[in-house]
Recover the amino acids of this structure.
């Protein structure tokens, strides 16, 4: 009995020593990659590790360098496309008088509009004004060729004793005119001034009635009376302003005539000697594709047996409120002279 108990103690002691040795064995270590401050650690469901550099930082790295280069190339392309609107100014002009003679010594002031790209925004632009001053040579010519821009504007054309045409253009494209065919600008060589009478009036009219216009006194008189023009407008009294209708107008000069100006006459400063007709009459058919309800006309006037010459621009309105109307802007010489120079 004692022998069996001794064997049991030896076995228990041996097991205790084995357990102590197993508990003292060192644990296995797992290696983790070293992370830098500029690295983000992301774990997915399979517990693998991804290292992603922050995309918002514009730093050249092997992964984002192509993207930044592409952005810069796109910016340059936009800038170049916008600045390509600036063309080299290649402008040739010539100034002549009412008789077609060249006018030397005319001072021309203008400005070139240069499109400028605002940095750093490639889509922002502003206009840079480049002033230009030239003087015409003996042939009345001047050139603008030493700047670039998207257009060329004329601010003033001046020479003592000359008037610029009221129809002279003041805006030109970069390539206007050529050495052989320059852009023509007309000036009027002044004559001695004469006392003129002028005005601008809107005269209401009733349908079918005749009125006399006195240009010297700026009056409208119903019926036939002393004056310069007789005007009338006919149309249906119930005409709808939103529909076409039959209508007509008549303008006649009293003891004289009317003549429309030559298209080449930019000034209308000299009334012609001949070619006058007693009246101008026009009818408008609602079935005509060219039908209009408002008409504008320009003409010279000779009235009162040649005692009055005038130039006038009129607008005839077939419906003006419930009536009709004529607007007339004119300059008249009441001294029997054809000189209408302002």
């Amino acid at each position: 009995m004692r022998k069996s108990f001794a064997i049991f103690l030896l076995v228990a002691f041996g097991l205790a020593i084995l357990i102590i040795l197993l508990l003292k064995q060192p644990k296995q270590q797992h290696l983790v990659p070293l992370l830098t401050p500029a690295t983000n650690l992301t774990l997915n469901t399979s517990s693998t590790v991804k290292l992603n550099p922050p995309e918002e930082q514009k730093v050249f790295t092997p992964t984002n360098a192509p993207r930044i280069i592409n952005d810069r190339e796109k910016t340059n392309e936009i800038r170049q496309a916008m600045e390509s609107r600036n063309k080299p100014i290649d402008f040739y002009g010539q100034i002549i008088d009412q008789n077609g003679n060249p006018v030397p010594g005319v001072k021309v002031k203008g400005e070139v509009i240069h499109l400028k790209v605002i940095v750093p925004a490639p889509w922002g632009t502003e206009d840079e004004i480049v002033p230009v001053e030239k003087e015409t040579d003996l042939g009345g010519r001047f050139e603008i060729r030493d700047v670039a821009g998207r257009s060329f504007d004329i601010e003033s054309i001046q020479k003592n004793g000359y008037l610029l045409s009221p129809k002279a253009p003041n805006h030109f494209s970069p390539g206007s005119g050529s050495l052989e065919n320059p852009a023509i600008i007309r000036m009027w060589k002044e004559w001695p001034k004469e006392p003129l009478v002028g005005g601008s009036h809107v005269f209401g009219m009733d349908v079918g009635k005749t009125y006399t216009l006195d240009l010297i006194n700026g009056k409208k008189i119903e019926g036939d009376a002393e004056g310069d023009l007789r005007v009338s407008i006919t149309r249906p009294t119930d005409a709808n302003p939103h529909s076409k209708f039959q209508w007509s107008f008549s303008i006649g000069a009293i003891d004289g005539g009317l003549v429309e100006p030559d298209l080449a006459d930019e000034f209308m400063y000299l009334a012609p000697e001949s070619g006058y007709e007693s009246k101008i009459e026009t009818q408008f058919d609602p079935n005509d594709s060219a039908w209009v309800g408002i008409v504008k006309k320009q003409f010279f006037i000779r009235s009162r047996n040649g005692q009055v010459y005038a130039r006038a621009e009129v607008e005839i309105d077939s419906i003006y409120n419930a009536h009709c109307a004529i607007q007339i802007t004119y300059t008249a010489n009441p001294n029997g002279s054809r000189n209408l120079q302002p």
Remarks:
- The chain is about 10% helix and 40% strand.
- Confidence is low (pLDDT under 50) at residues 29-57.
